[in-house]
Amino acid sequence: MKKISLRVKCPVCHESLLDEKYLINDVPSVKLNIETDGKRGNIRLCSTYSCFNHESSIEIGENAVVDFFCPECNQKLISNTTCSECDAPLIPFVIESGGKVLICSRKGCDKHFVAFENISDAMRKMHDEYGI
């Protein structure tokens, strides 16, 4: 199965969250500001769907819930949905080709999913962009 590196934007200001110069697994990373246990820092996530590799400037305790913020507008990224596995808040990102991806905010939980408002348009855009 072909791995897809998702191009994501902030759901608030719609600025790209990708850092083309900082790669994780040979793809641009998703750069975010974070806060957990009273500490602030940043995190870079692998932009490949279903990849959980990341690098953080602060220690994140196992099972800790992390608050995520856009590095451009500094707004907290949070959805109205909680994780069906661990009940932590889900973090939304807008996919540039359409739809959104949501990830769990709890370290160690790998629950995530993609949602599309218009599946036909999103599939056409993804086919054009990724050839799938």
Helix-strand blueprint:
Elements: E1 8-9, E2 18-24, E3 27-36, E4 39-46, E5 54-56, E6 67-69, E7 76-77, E8 90-95, E9 100-104, E10 112-115, H1 119-130
Antiparallel strand pairs: 1-8, 2-3, 3-4, 3-6, 4-5, 6-7, 8-9, 9-10
What does this structure look like?
- The chain is mainly beta and 132 residues long.
- It is 9% helix and 38% strand.
- It contains one helix and ten strands, in the order ββββββββββα.
- Strands 2, 3, 4, 5, 6 and 7 form a six-stranded antiparallel β-sheet that branches.
- The longest helix has 12 residues.
- The protein is globular.
- The model has no long low-confidence stretch (mean pLDDT 89).
Give structural attributes.
132 residues; mainly beta; six-stranded antiparallel sheet; 1 helix; globular
